Amino acid sequence: MESFSTRKSLLILLSVITSIVIVTFLISVFARGYRLDTNNKEFKIKVTGLLSATSRPRPANVYINNLLTTTTDNTVNLNPGNYMVKIARDGYYPWIKNIQIQPEFVSLANAQLFRIDPELKAITLSGIINPSVSPDGNKIIYAVASTSATSKDNGLYLLEVNEFSLLLGKFTPRLLSSNLPYLDWSKYTFEFSPNSRQIIASSPKYSSVYLFSIDQNIDPTNLFDVSTKLTEIKNGWQSDQQQIITAKLEKIPLQLITLIATNSSTLSLNSNEDKILYQAKTDGNLDENLISPPPTKSNQTQSRSLKKDLFYVYDLKEDTNFLIGDTSISNLSWLPNSDNLIFTQNKDVRVCEYDATNFQTIYTGYAPIKDILSNLDGYKIIISSPTDSKTPSNLYSLTIKDR
């Protein structure tokens, strides 16, 4: 009797283990994209691929080949092939991309949606002169010489985008120096050091050249003419800049390094440091498989034949290279914490993805936009531009996307 009970317990245990193994196997098979095909009254196992769709902000509708299929933060099984995927939400530009679905793999559709009507707010009102943006993209220095401003308000200002301004949602320029009896800051132009902490002020009208730190306000006791040491200072800055460039190029294939214009201010890595934005210094061709690509990678149209002065993005993980644009665009940079690029083109502020898709004009100004900087989270940008023929250039914050 005891032997029968023992055998019964073993059978039950084996049945449970077998069931667990079968269920685990079926789950793994399902996760890999295998499905039961009941077409033509025949039961077959077919292999599919997965499309994972996300959006910022969420939720948003997901259209596959123009058919509303699901919402974002969802995964869809699709037969292998090419699909037009659109992610859309009211009040935002739609995100559209052709995506190749491969069997047993997950393809990603990560959409950053930008506002159709961005919110524009004035930061300055009295006009700005000779603005200059820092290399880190978070500071802008400029002069004010308005006839409507009092004499103490005319001078040199710094706008710095930091955690404090983000927390309060306010951007307050700091007066570095009022005009001095012997110095009118509006007659000077400004150049940041490579680390964005020092500034050289020079003028075509005056022989005096000034070097100062942005960490302290300026007064006659700490402002000195460095014109006799300018060459030495510039050489030091050039050495610092070379160290920064060398650090950026450490992970880049040698063949690509030989084609990059290392003196370009555009040269930069995205926040994840897996993609590099660069300008070509010469015509050339990129060989295939400069690095070992993953099993799946972007199927967007590449540009491995480079043309001098054009702007490109190279993906350091996927060994893909994409043409972004020519020299008609300016202020090209990464939006923080994203794979999106932002730039100006004449009167327009435009964005696109790293793989040269989803080009969108998010703002059109009255006149050509000369300067642009992003705040630290990339949801607002700051531009310098006039808004009509009667006003000078001023600084404006522009909310272009939402969390």
Give keywords:
mainly beta; 403 residues; elongated
Question: Would you mind describing this structure in some detail?
Answer:
The chain is mostly beta strands and 403 residues long. The chain has a domain at 48-112: Carboxypeptidase-like, regulatory domain (Immunoglobulin-like), CATH 2.60.40. The protein contains four helices and 30 strands. The protein has helices at 2-31, 163-168, 230-248, 254-257, and strands at 34-37, 44-47, 49-56, 61-64, 67-71, 74-78, 81-88, 95-101, 106-112, 119-122, 129-133, 139-144, 155-160, 174-178, 189-192, 198-202, 210-213, 268-269, 275-279, 284-285, 305-306, 311-315, 320-325, 330-334, 340-345, 348-353, 360-364, 371-374, 380-385, 394-399. The strands form nine sheets. It has a four-stranded antiparallel beta sheet with strand order 5-4-7-8, with no helix packed on it. It has a four-stranded antiparallel beta sheet with strand order 10-30-29-28, with no helix packed on it. A hairpin with a 4-residue loop joins strand 22 (311-315) and strand 23. The longest helix is centred in the N-terminal third of the chain and has 30 residues, at 2-31. The termini are far apart. The model has no long low-confidence stretch (mean pLDDT 87).
